[in-house]
User: Fold these one by one.
Assistant:
Number 1:
Amino acid sequence: MYNTIFQGLIQGITEFLPISSSGHLVIFNTIFGDGESNLSLTVCLHFATLLSVFIVFRKDIFSLIKEFFGAISDLLKGRKDCFKTPERRFLLMVIIGTIPALIAGLGVKLLELDSLMENIFTVAVMLLVTATFMFLIDRLKTGTYTEADAPYKTTLLVGCLQAAAILPGLSRSGSTIFGGVLGGLNREFAVKYAFILSIPAILGAGVLEFMDVLEAGSLGIDPFHLFVGFIVAAVSGVASIKLISLLIRNRKFYIFGIYCLLAAGIAFWAGTRYSLLT
């Protein structure tokens, strides 16, 4: 039970705080060896963090769902100006921003780059990149763009940074928020866009893992433990998103920069100490 609570807490925190959950996993496995993880619990925790995004941004998400079906209806009717409203433009921003991540995910699978995804030195370098982004965010000028007038080149920039964040150690939330602020988005809107943009990626990963669970034919864990882990991950996920929204307004992202520098140092040490010995 305590292990389930711990995993739920770690998932909720590292999934959203700009410190890279995948990078931490590689560091942990390098130092302590590959730990056995329950696939059912992993799926459960992914869907819990997805719920966190829905809870915090529920109004925006329900609006996007409504506008999605409305846009399809307008397109079928031959209307050419169906993406002029702020709500429809936000929908198009999410669609455009998701495309680079889909291409990156397929590229990793087709090119069989899984070894790169588990390389401790890749993690160390990418954590340094994440740290740089975190320090720069506080120094960037506050933009004014929102869904009403954000340029699509900013959308593409954010999407490409989310795609790059497939590399372990490069934080997805940190990269996309940095890209949004760099592209002139209002800071609060940059956070909202970054997290809503993460929905397709989290959902896709969860669905693929769920298919593996179905293929296995059993949960392999007490359902009550799944429930507890789900609640812990969802609650800690909501808290993490709220914390980021607070720190972005007060220009305190350097805190994450310092943390990532320390994590990068540990990764370099772990790579030298353990990887080179095997």
Note: The radius of gyration is 19 Å.
Number 2:
Amino acid sequence: MNDVIVVASGKGGTGKSTVCVGLSVALVKQKKKVLLIDCDCGMRGLDLMLDVEEEILFDCSDAICGNCKPSDAVYKSKNLSGLFLMAAPFDTDNEISPSVFKQLVDGLKNDYDYVIIDSPAGIGSGFATAAAPATRALIVTNAEPTSVRGAIKIRNRLSRLEIDDIRLVINRFNREQFEQLDSFEDLDEIIDDIAVRLIALVPYDVRLSAIFQNGYAGLNWSPAVTVFDCLAKRIEGFDIPLAFRG
């Protein structure tokens, strides 16, 4: 299939990286081989979430600059066979151009069923680079006004980049907090404002963040596992209902 999916958000703090890892783990459970690429130059974190930070010698900028072969910058997840990571550079000066990054991903994607790219938040140059090789996109938002405004900007930019297969993930949803905030009449208003079809509603679960932040992706889990399993199946094209409806 060789799908390349960019996961983007208009503002930081939406849990975008958690969605990337959760989706990747769920796809691997479905016997898919997944390459997860951290494209957040200077702010990389996926190596910590997959517990491979001590192993990283080369990152995607090294592969592009010729410091190593592209395959040398790909690291296996310790906890889950079938999941691989290419880390972002620590140095923001090593930002990568869209055309060069696309060339890198095009050279790697045939070895995997899915390439999932964790884009930096916002619509700056890093986002343009992350989106360049993508054929599909997931926009991650929270159910609050500033996050929704950012999601609208991301949708507009993706459309200008001619990425038409775009789906929405509402993350960290808590019904009680949503009603207390009282910014939207219901979830349909958010979906209508962003004008992107909803593919997953992920409940707020602090245990999920704790699991990933401590590098245990694939070993321990939370009740949100069923949501990511459902998301992976919907990405695969299965016509199934949402696992969580809020």
Note: The chain has a mean pLDDT of 89.
Number 3:
Amino acid sequence: MLKLDIFLSALANGLMTGAVYALIALGLTLVYGVLHIINFAHGAMLTAAMFAVFICHAWLGIDPYLAVFILTPLFFGLGYAIQRLVISPASHGDDSNILLVTLGLSIIIENGLLMGFRSDTRSIDVPYGFSVIEIGNLFLSTPKVIAFVAAFVVAGLLGLLLVRTDTGKAIRAVAKERTGAALSGIDVEHIYAVTFGIGAACLAIAACLLMPTFLVNPRAGNAFVLVAFTIVVLGGMGSIGGALIGGLIIGVVESLSGLYFGESLGQIGIFLIFILVLLFRPTGLFGAKA
């Protein structure tokens, strides 16, 4: 029988990890909600963002948490350009072509990183990397606590963007009915690119939060994006709130599975949930029927 403090520590760790998972899933579910496609380049773009954080720290001496102010607008612009100049022209208006284009982008990005950084695993050394915050009998990793708080802040800001701003209202209009939005004077192609850019910006923020405690290699993003897909399915495709809650649930499940079944089997609970959701509630917790 495990002691209560060990269980609570695993629970807290799962919640903090799940918040970052949710941040990765936010970009994925937002792109799906507007463009109605799965972005297969999501994992490769996360890897690229993690390497960008590594470069900022190792080569330029910029702290990962400060790099967020550089990389977030940079990756927004990169995402906007990829959608506007590559994905949209190459797809010719066919959603199935978009899937192939994003898959091709994933392969190009991953192999470009392999060429530039080889297959070596990289990490960064920050003074607070192993610092902890003590709460009673719990010892919480400081970088994970920061990531937990930051993920909620970003999710809140994204929610405000969608509800309070003209751009957010245009994004919701295009997600609901692209033809009607176009007839209302909304530049649909611009909104597509903005949405893709926001998804890329979320990845940049997630990378800055991950790097103080995680390692990176040219395939690192693939593991995270598999979890993100599960979160999107669990929360409901296109649901921002569902992605946040789903991320927390998945983080807790992964942590408790690792506690009870061993670290090597920590993700078994995630994929059991994935299968069960597909079987019994394919719309997810907060998804709507098509």
Note: The first strand starts at residue 132 and ends at 135.
Number 4:
Amino acid sequence: MKNTYLFDFDGTLVDSMPCWSQQMINILERYNIDYPDDIIKIITPLGNAGSARYYKEVLGVPISYEEMQRQMDEYAIPKYRDEIEIKEGVKEYLELLKSKGCSLNVLTASPHRTLDPCLKRLHIYDLFDNVWSCDDFGTTKSDPDIYLNAVNKIGCSIEDVVFFDDNIGALKTAKQAGLTIVGVYDASAEDFTDEVKEVSYRYINSFSELNGPIE
């Protein structure tokens, strides 16, 4: 039985990917920037700061990083603070794992200014031992070291950690780092469902399918 759990936030614990994606697309459309069809798959593991760098260095968005971040926050902060909802079965599963003495942790590309208020409003923030943004590590979920550093901070063996995410890029990288991965369905990643299933130890459409720790 696995005792340590690491959860993505957007699209995994909460139904926020439409909002997160829209804040990113808004910038590209505002400046008439052409972008690839799989832009959301590309930028999701990068987070806000990493996406801003990608926008400027690769896509040529003609504004500063600070202005991009301001525009993202202007759209997203009220949504996370007041509107975004928890996904089906999440709270119940977290409470079950907690009752079994498991360590629960969050690792997400979202910044604390959207992450923390949302988790607190949904009354699950206090269930976690650690709530981390990629900003806390100075890298992205496309970097295997972020998972190794998180495991080191938790203070457990990497073989004991289960990582839940909806994004194929993050799942592949976490698997490369040695974590046991569970793919989580999200409509935003539906086109990659078969690929996620192929790389995952287990795949779930909803947390309500789970009735105990991962074996």
Note: Residues 5 and 162 are 5 Å apart (CA to CA).
